Amino acid sequence: MNSPSSGSASGAYNITTGLIDFDVDRLNQTFVEKYKNSLDDFAYQDFRIACPPQFRIGNLATFTGFKPNTSTFSGGDSQFGSNPNNGDSLLWSVQRFKVGSNWYDDSFYLSDHRPVISDIIL
User: Fold this and answer.
1) Is 102 a member of any domain?
2) Beta bridge partners of 12
């Protein structure tokens, strides 16, 4: 969704993770009825945050804009999952989270976004 986890462009991320509420009355009601979730307070968890810090590896930023200057890099690529809200049992856990490289030895950028890779136990 290309939404960073903070800053003025973080709305989609914050709604997805439940950090801010979104008024569903603003959406097309046919869409809401088809895709509504029956769980109360449903929100996705960011795999980066769910992963223990010592197992987060690689780069911090996921978007480079094809530029080598790290001061312009930002986030915006995330992986999400949801476990039951009651905490009785976890459906998954993140064992490792990595933001890879998009620059290769032959000076070729694969993309302006870096790959986000998670090892998950279901």
Assistant:
1) yes
2) none
Closest by alpha carbon to 109, among 120, 101, 97, 117?
Answer: 101
Q: State how far the alpha carbon of 119 is from the alpha carbons of 52, 56, 92, 102, in Å.
A: 12, 11, 10, 19
Domain-embedded: residue 68: yes
What pLDDT shows up at residue 40? 61
Which residue reads 């960011």 in tokens?
A: 46
Please check whether residue 74 is in contact with residue 61, taking contact to mean a CB–CB distance below 8 angstroms: yes
Whether the pTM exceeds 0.85: the reply is: no
Q: In whole angstroms, what is the distance from residue 31 CA to residue 20 CA?
A: 20
Q: Which residue has the tokens 């001061």?
A: 71
